[in-house]
From TrEMBL:
Cellular component terms per the entry's GO annotation: mitochondrion
Name the UniProt record assigns to this protein: YbgI/family dinuclear metal center protein
Keyword line: Metal-binding
Organism: Polytolypa hystricis (strain UAMH7299)
A Pfam family reported for this protein in Swiss-Prot or TrEMBL: DUF34_NIF3
Region entry Disordered, spans: 139-161
Length: 345
């Protein structure tokens, strides 16, 4: 959409989604030393080709996911991994990923990537992996004081094991309300936990994978190993879970760890469980992000609609129809999947 001054604008609904993502997962928490986060593709708003008030969540923005978004008529894709990671010198149809971006902008679909901001935020992916291992902690909203927690109910035998949770690499200057943000989480149990019972909990998020890659110290047996500490990091965990070649916990839970780092960990008595890179991330979208973003966008869309109503004439029936539509839909892609499959031989 172009204004009378010739300025091109993205859709107001896209603005509501971007504002919501930035509130839930502040870009300041991302690791900008290597990452590329934020609004990566801002598609112009076409009045004659209005998209639905809908968001498609995915870990990876592949051609199949783009086809899905185009067919659905989504306004924006929130892709956890940035499709634009390094500098581009051209945009051509000969490159599959660039072709995807060009097709999306032609359809009026924008792309936002939060990546490591989701890793670092309290209640983000690293905490979600901890919840898988321990059971969920009491949820707190970022705007609430982290010291104000509701009283705990009496414990029973089915409650999650008592533990503490800390951040491995705290953010040195987190935004207000995100004081516990940072990379990686460390769970310390008050009592030793059998490894086999932790494996059963972890297997609940493998989404059809027939097995778990696990590395244990040579000469040990899974049934005889007890765990005092668990460190979690979604995706590639080497830079977080290994410090100067030393594992930071009894059990390292991540998406992938290199051969030599896994050897170094088990030689020092630790256990390593890898879930495949994106399988350590994908379950978070449906378990946590979808409902959080739905609620946030519903509130933000009301704000943006009011702002546009105050600056837009009433004669345009397309704009009026858009601003009168309070609907919001946030869904997880059905086409997104890890590139690796496990084949039983």
């Amino acid at each position: 959409m172009a204004t009378s001054q010739g300025q091109t604008l993205s859709s107001p609904f896209t603005k509501a989604v971007v504002n919501s993502m930035r509130k839930l997962y502040p870009e300041a928490l991302a690791d900008k030393s290597f990452d590329n986060t934020g609004l990566l593709l801002e598609a112009p708003f076409h009045l004659a080709k209005r998209q639905r008030n809908s968001v498609l969540l995915t870990v990876d923005l592949t051609r199949a996911v783009a086809d899905e978004a185009i067919e659905r008529g989504d306004s924006i894709i929130v892709a956890y991994h940035p499709i634009i990671f390094r500098g581009l010198k051209s945009l051509t149809l000969g490159d599959p990923q660039q072709d995807t971006l060009l097709r999306l902008v032609q359809e009026g679909i924008s792309v936002y990537s939060p990546h490591t901001a989701v890793d670092a935020v309290p209640g983000g992916m690293a905490d979600w992996l901890c919840d898988v291992v321990t059971g969920p902690e009491a949820a707190t909203h970022p705007s609430l004081s982290t010291t104000e927690k509701p009283p705990l109910p009496p414990r029973n035998v089915s409650d999650p094991p008592l533990h503490t949770r800390t951040t491995i690499y705290p953010n040195p200057s987190p935004p207000e309300g995100f004081e516990t943000a940072g990379m990686g989480r460390l769970v310390t149990f008050q009592a030793l936990q059998p490894l086999d019972s932790l494996i059963k909990r972890i297997s609940s998020i493998t989404q059809g994978v027939v097995g778990l890659p696990i590395a244990i110290p040579q000469g040990r047996n899974i049934n005889d190993i007890n765990i005092s500490t668990v460190a979690t990091c979604p995706g590639s965990g080497s830079s977080i879970l290994m410090k100067s070649g030393q594992p930071v916990a009894d059990l390292l839970l991540t998406g992938e760890l290199s051969h030599h780092e896994a050897l170094a960990a088990i030689e020092r008595g630790s256990v390593v469980i890898t879930l495949f890179h994106s399988n350590s991330e994908r379950g978070y979208l449906d378990s946590v992000m979808r409902s959080r973003l739905q609620a946030a966008v519903e509130d933000e869309w009301d704000i943006v609609r009011a702002e546009w109503a105050g600056t837009t004439g009433t004669g345009d029936t397309v704009i009026s129809g858009l601003l009168n539509d309070s609907s919001v839909a946030v869904d997880v892609s059905s086409e997104d999947r890890d590139p690796y499959q496990v084949i039983a031989l």
